[in-house]
Structures are given as structure tokens and as C-alpha cells.
Amino acid sequence: MTAIEPTDYHVPALQRGLAILGMFNGRQRTLSMQDMAERLAVSPSAVYRIVQTLVDMGYLRKVGRSDFELGSRVISDGFAYLASRDIVEVAMPHLNDLRDRTSLSCHLSIREQTDSLYIYRAFAPQRLTVNIPIGTRLPCHGTALGRVLLTALNDSELSQLYQHVRLDDYPPPAPRTLPELRRLIAEDRERGWVLHRSDYSTAIASGIRDHSGAITAAINLSGPDAVMNTSAAQEAFLDALLAASGEISAALGFNA
Known about the structure:
With 256 residues, the chain is α+β, with helices and mostly antiparallel strands. The protein has two domains: 70 residues, Winged helix-like DNA-binding domain superfamily/Winged helix DNA-binding domain (Arc Repressor Mutant, subunit A); 167 residues, GAF domain (Beta-Lactamase), CATH 3.30.450.40. It contains ten helices and nine strands. Helix 1 packs across helix 3 and helix 2 crosses helix 3. The longest helix is centred in the C-terminal third of the chain and has 21 residues. The chain is elongated.
């Protein structure tokens, strides 16, 4: 534990309380009062009132006879902070890095009704590239990003969303009927990612999950067929994409 130099404004009890909360992590989920005291190099009586205060405020919870774990106050406050972070702010460095490693354009989108709304792009400045501007709206059922976003819906929600939408106005490979759309999205949901070809280009997309595990956004890698048309290339790009989506989801609080 890093030592903190005391100042005129130093509050030892607050320092100890925060230090106790910092002792818990993925490997250390429970601690006794004796454990906390030993780590702080003080007696159990010196931390007793601090621990009881943290319990009363919901930051710690007693389990069993003498052990404590993080309480719901820490979890809910932490999730509220993570949920409030701008998805673009969180995803941007990961997408820029993915673009640099693959030399392909990357896009981030969210769903608004039946549209996939593009809210960020990491543009690959090459002669043959795919470039969809921020603010573009494309029908979800006709794009890799949109189909990933639709996997967040169950069959009933999907049917309700598309009950008044004509699908036969869109060219293949987009589904042209609601039953076909339901089957396609079910397959996408099971697979966990989507590959879509159109207009001499190919896109691979995967979902971004929030702390609850819900898919709230999607990212893709997209490029010309000449670059992405081999199974080896697609496998390598898919691995990179899934790694990036996992990192972004983790940054948003998702624990796989």
C-alpha cells in the first residue's frame, strides 16, 4: 500500500476507511476485521468503528460470523458512474488502436428504433477503404452493426419493433420477411457476431455490453472484399474485433 504523507488537512480515519475498501478485489472478496487491521498495521479495535460505519452506510456487508465483503452501495455507485460515461469516450482509444492494427476502418453504432446510428468512426486512410460518416443512419436488418444491435431484443420485442415495417423494399442479402428476420437474428445471437457483405465490401461486427450484460452498442471492422475475402483474413480480423469489444465492454463494467 502506498504511504501517504500527512498534512494539516489529513484525516486518518477517512484514509483508513478508503484503504479498507481498496483491499477488496476479484481475488480477495472477503476479509475479517483482523485481516484489515493487520494490513493497516493497527489493532482490531482501531478499525472497529470505521468498519461499523462502512457497514451502516452500505459500503461493507457482514457475511458469516466475522467476515466482510463489499456492500451494495459500492456496487451501485460504481455502476452508476460507469453507466454515465460516454460510450464514445470509452470506445475511442480501443477503436483507434484496432484501426491501426488492422488497417481497416472501424465504426461504433447504437440502435434508434429500426436504425443503426453511427456515432464514431476510426477511419483507415487508404485508397480502398470503407468510410461511413458519423450521424449516418442505416436500417438495422441490412447491416452487420444493426443485426448485432437487434440481438439485444427477444423474439417478441423484435416482432413488435418490425410489425409495421416493410422489409421487402430492401435488396438481398437483407431479410425480406419478419419470420426470416427472426431466424437470422436468432442465428446471429447464438453466434455472437455478424459478417455481412455488400457493394464489394465486407463488415464484421460484434456487440458492446454494459455492466448488466445487455448489448447497448456495436462495433465493426469493414473493408474491401479484396482484403477480407479469405477465411484466414476473416478469422484474424474477427479475433481482433472480439478482443476490442471485450475490452470496451469491460471498461463499461461488464464482467464476463
